[in-house]
């Protein structure tokens, strides 16, 4: 068995110290998670990782910047274009990498292990024969999805700006509530994509808070249950007790945040949260 360290850096920006402590001879990769659109501290992670590969979980991070550069410019990074993400292709995602060998393998494995793309085989004067070099899958993005994605990508800056405006309004409107923890802000130079606005409920049981939101016709989300408590993970790796993780996972709630929200809708959520917490 080998270990992959998955690193979630949200409120505890100093937790990179834990990475070096947890690395063993069986550690094959370190996966920092750019949770909710906030960039992990990549310089600190790289320093702790040394020669161990770093793979960025950038599912939340399209439009996220770290020290002036977009996430994924240096390491292999995996982005999601699921319908609830900041931009979408309907489903699917994108891998970015500077590794030419990995690029070749990914392109090979995304389409049945066939060495050449279909359009190259059937173009004018092309040879329609092909070879399968390795077992592959059917993971290629369709042309329709790609067309949607290209159009969405052109709107990314505007989408990100709108999400930032909503997040700032939430912070301003909810910061005085003693029974609520708001998302932390990274202390280093960054651009936040605000994929999620996750709060931690401290003054009441979360289920009562969610029921009260539902009564007011306000949506919410849970992002996410603690992975080690999921049935498959427990069967595969055995039971693990992580008290801090479990405590946080039992208290977090995602408030509505999408670029189509207008000022009145945002204010309605703020007033509802204030009323419920009070």
Can you give keywords for this protein?
3-stranded antiparallel β-sheet; 10 helices; globular; alpha+beta; 278 residues; 3-stranded mixed β-sheet
Can you walk through the features of this model?
There is one protein chain. This protein is of the alpha+beta class and 278 residues long. It is 36% helix and 15% strand. The protein has helices spanning 17-22, 42-49, 100-109, 118-122, 143-154, 156-174, 206-215, 231-237, 243-249, 263-277, and strands at 3-8, 27-33, 55-57, 65-66, 69-70, 76-80, 93-96, 180-181, 190-191, 197-201, 252-255. The strands form four sheets. It has a three-stranded mixed sheet with strand order 3-6-7, with no helix packed on it. A three-stranded antiparallel sheet has the order 5-4-9, with no helix packed on it. Strands 8-10-11 form a three-stranded antiparallel sheet. Helix 1 links the parallel strand 1 and strand 2. Helix 6 (156-174) runs parallel beside helix 10. The longest helix has 19 residues, at 156-174. It starts with a strand and ends with a helix. The model is unreliable at 9-13 (pLDDT under 50).
């Amino acid at each position: 068995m080998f270990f992959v360290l998955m690193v979630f850096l949200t409120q505890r920006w100093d937790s990179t110290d834990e990475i070096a402590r947890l690395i063993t001879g069986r550690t094959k990769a370190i996966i920092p998670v750019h949770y909710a659109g906030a960039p992990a501290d990549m310089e600190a992670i790289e320093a702790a990782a040394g020669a161990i590969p770093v793979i960025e979980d950038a599912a939340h991070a399209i439009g996220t910047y770290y020290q002036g550069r977009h996430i994924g410019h240096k390491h292999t990074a995996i982005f999601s274009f699921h319908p609830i993400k900041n931009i979408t292709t309907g489903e699917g995602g994108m891998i970015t990498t500077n590794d030419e060998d990995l690029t070749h393998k990914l392109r090979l494995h995304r389409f049945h292990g066939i060495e050449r793309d279909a359009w190259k085989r059937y173009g004018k004067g092309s040879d329609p024969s092909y070879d399968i070099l390795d077992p592959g899958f059917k993971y290629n993005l369709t042309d329709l999805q790609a067309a949607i994605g290209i159009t969405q990508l052109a709107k990314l800056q505007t989408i990100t700006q709108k999400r930032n405006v909503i997040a700032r309004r939430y912070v301003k409107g909810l910061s005085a509530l003693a029974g609520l923890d708001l998302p932390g802000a990274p202390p280093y130079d960054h651009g936040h994509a605000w994929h999620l606005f996750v709060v931690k409920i401290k003054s009441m049981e979360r289920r009562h808070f969610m029921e009260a939101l539902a009564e007011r016709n306000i949506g919410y989300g849970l992002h996410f249950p603690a992975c080690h408590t999921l049935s498959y993970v427990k069967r595969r790796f055995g039971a693990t007790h992580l008290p801090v993780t479990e405590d946080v996972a039992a208290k977090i709630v995602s408030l509505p945040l999408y670029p189509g929200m207008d000022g009145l809708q945002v204010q309605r959520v703020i007033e509802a949260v204030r009323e419920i917490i009070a």
